[in-house]
Amino acid sequence: MRAVLPLQVIVVSSSSELKKLYGTTLRSIGADVRWHVSLQEVLDERGTLKPSILLLDLDSQTEPVKLFSEELRALFPDSEWVALSSEDSAQIAMRCLRAGFADFLVKPMNPGELAWAILRCQQRRQAREEWSQSPTRLLEAVKEMSACSSATLLRITALQFLKQAIGARSVRWAARAKNYSRMQWKFLNSNQTLWIPSRIFLDEGILVTGLKKKPSQECLKEAKSLVEHLELSHANLSRLEQMRQQTFLDDLTGLYNARYLRHCLDKAVHDFREKKETFCVLFIDVDKFKAVNDEHGHLVGSGLLKALGRSLKNLVRTQDSVFRYGGDEFVVILAGTHLSRGIQVAERLRKSIEKRVFQIEESSVRATLSIGVASFPDHAEKLESLLKMADQAMYDAKRKSRNAVETLPLPNYPQLDA
Predict the structure, then answer these.
(1) pLDDT band, very low/low/confident/very high, at 10 (cuts 50, 70, 90)
(2) Which of 29, 270, 282, 409 is deepest in the core (most CB within 10 A)?
(3) Which of 110-114, 169-173, 310-314, 384-388 has the lowest mean pLDDT?
(4) CB contact at 8 A, 81 and 56
(5) Are 119 and 236 in contact (CB under 8 A)?
(6) Residue 166 has pLDDT above 50, yes or no
(7) What is the CATH superfamily name and number for domain 136-246?
(8) Residue 47 carries which DSSP code?
(9) What pLDDT does 47 receive?
């Protein structure tokens, strides 16, 4: 049985919000987490620390990235580093990667994304430990499999490297036959065929055919290492998906949920402070949604919400964010958008949905939207007030006519930074 490396994570950040948001997530993946306000604290306690991964919050540090890398490499030569930043800057990300950081994450990130980044770093450490004497192609396989973003891509990538390792004519996923074991590797047809069972896809396995001779023990050892890493990578992908569903994603529509809305609003306010970029919030309600459920059933109603969510996401820019706020309500954050432009976008969304006929199950369903628009910082200095004003404007649209866009008059007071 292989030895599993301990997972100690050091977080260097002066932000108490970071600990509040991600402390539970880090512990849930089995990490021994140590929180430090500055690199000086890490230096002071370096004799007691053996970090597997070091998370460095760039927002709370004053030294340049290059200095970080020099100090960290001298202190912890075997650790992996992940940089966190509220600034989505390709220039900063490139500097970090060139300095030796394994990953660069933009705050606020989904807790699942952070967990996934840490698990990938730990995989690389485990691979270095186990296969430091292995062929270069095995290390390359581990790297590529760890980077796979879906189970399908992972399955295909694993086959490619298994074919190289074993030297077979054909390697493919196949349904498990009655005489194939769920647990044991099995040679068939005078050692020309090899069955490799899967512990993650119990009714499937990998069928290796066209072997000219039985692979050597060294080749089989390499192949088994690849299969182990396939299983580990798949488990991590599954864990990431579970975390996404349990944290910031709505399980019906796949959009961000109301829990993540606050973090995105905080990010938008940060951009306003740094770049003076205003933004708009659209509060959206589906008109007479109860009638859809009553006439067509809740299954069609749920399908309509999913279709509306996809439509709204496709109708806005990639830098904008769409949320399912709850029930039949959606919220959109329009980044870098003034009030007049926000109203125009809301009208475009309303008209586009009004024209569509959604095919849900066997029903043809139409929908209209009532949309309230509020602008930061024009309408409100506080985020709670901003949402409330967008919500109130939406209710005004419903009271007046439905299928309409409304905004409240701008308050008559001097604006302050949020």
Answers:
(1) confident
(2) 282
(3) 110-114
(4) yes
(5) yes
(6) yes
(7) GAF domain (3.30.450.40)
(8) G
(9) 79
| pLDDT tens figures, 258-292 | 888 888 888 888 888 888 889 999 999 999 999 99
Residues paired with 79 in a beta bridge: none
The first and second tokens of residue 218, run together, are 């060294």
Structure token digits, residue 162 = 């298994």
Tokens of 92: 């900063």
Considering only CA atoms, give the Rg of the chain: 26
Say if pTM beats, i.e. exceeds, 0.85: no
How many Å apart are CA 322 and CA 282, to the nearest integer?
Answer: 9
Give the contacts of 266 (CB within 8 A, at least 6 positions apart): 108, 383
Q: pLDDT band at 312, cuts 50/70/90?
A: very high
Q: Are 25 and 50 in contact (CB under 8 A)?
A: no
Q: What is the CATH number of domain 8-127?
A: 3.40.50.2300
Q: What's the CA gap between 267 and 111, in Å, rounded? A: 16
H/E element, 243:
helix 217-246
pLDDT in tens, 387-417: 999 999 999 999 999 999 999 998 864 444 4
One CATH from 3.30.70.270, 3.90.950.20, 3.40.47.10, 3.30.40.10 for 256-407:
3.30.70.270
Identify whether the C-beta of residue 365 lies closer than 8 Å to the C-beta of residue 357.
yes
Q: How far apart are CA 98 and CA 105, in angstroms?
A: 15
The pLDDT score that the predictor gives to residue 92 is: 77
Least-confidence region, from 93-102, 130-139, 164-173, 221-230 = 130-139
Backbone angles phi, psi at 257, to 5 degrees: -100, 180
Q: Is the peptide bond before 377 cis (omega within 30 degrees of 0)?
A: yes
Kindly list the distances between the CA atom of residue 225 and the CA atoms of 10, 218, 230, 352, in Å, as whole numbers in the listed order. Answer: 29, 11, 9, 52
- Start-to-end CA distance of the chain, whole Å, equals 55
